[in-house]
């Protein structure tokens, strides 16, 4: 089962890819999390990527393609994966297709989470992330029992540094310019399934699983 989740910042890719990965028994690969871990560790990749993450701009294609290529060589991807946040440009999509074609394991389906701009701004502005386990919360739509504390592990919740109004606008601009063309790219391959992601998390989960199940 090889799935790509597409959608604008805040569409719910992280929320849904975690559920889908557990349900299907394949790894959830979140390129944004891989990059942030490299930034925290101060690796050469992290140092190169940090200014782009801070600005809400996409990290250059060659760096991202190499990073994903290496991750897809890990044996846990043998049975498949849920890719969250990759590809985000047509060159990235072409590189992924080439890698998977060489391995004889093409993508099964690309699920686009469709949600409007007002909803994503509201979701991003209220998102809180656990500083320890990374669980995603929302102050309004999915609040923890105790304000600011993760129910899962008891550690503090933080607001992502790129979830501020100016950076959110830049991230949405990057999405519109560089990632939206991927919908035509995958529609032409007959692999695109669009689902309404404006509903509750549970409703979106049901639609996402229904989109993945035939494969
Ligand atoms: P990344 O971390 O991937 O950020 P993103 O794509 O902007 O996506 P988000 O993580 O912000 O949102 P999401 O769709 O996962 O939503 P979530 O489930 O958290 O990338 C960060 C940066 O890394 C990029 O800006 C770029 O610099 C770089 N990068 C990454 N990939 C790259 C690539 N391929 N090429 C180049 N550069 C790259 O949900 C959001 C909130 O809404 C949460 O609080 C959640 O609880 C809530 N929520 C979720 N679903 C619902 C719902 N149905 N109803 C109500 N609330 C909901």
Quickly describe the structure.
This protein is α/β, with parallel strands linked by helices. It has helices at residues 13-24, 31-41, 44-55, 61-72, 90-103, 117-125, 165-179, 181-188, 201-212, and strands spanning 2-6, 28-30, 81-84, 109-114, 127-130, 136-138, 157-158, 192-196. Strands 2-3-1-4-8 form a five-stranded parallel β-sheet. The chain has a three-stranded antiparallel β-sheet with strand order 6-5-7.
Walkthrough of the structure:
With 215 residues, the chain is α/β, with parallel strands linked by helices. It has one domain (2-117, 175-212): Rossmann fold (3-Layer(aba) Sandwich), CATH 3.40.50. 49% of the residues lie in helices and 15% in strands. The chain is built from nine helices and eight strands. Strands 2-3-1-4-8 form a five-stranded parallel beta sheet. A three-stranded antiparallel beta sheet has the order 6-5-7. β5 and β6 form a beta hairpin. α1 crosses α9 (201-212), α2 crosses α3 and α4 (61-72) packs parallel to α5 (90-103). The longest helix has 15 residues, at 165-179. The protein is globular. The structure holds BIS(adenosine)-5'-pentaphosphate. The site of BIS(adenosine)-5'-pentaphosphate (AP5) has 36 residues, from α1, α2, α3, α6 and β6.
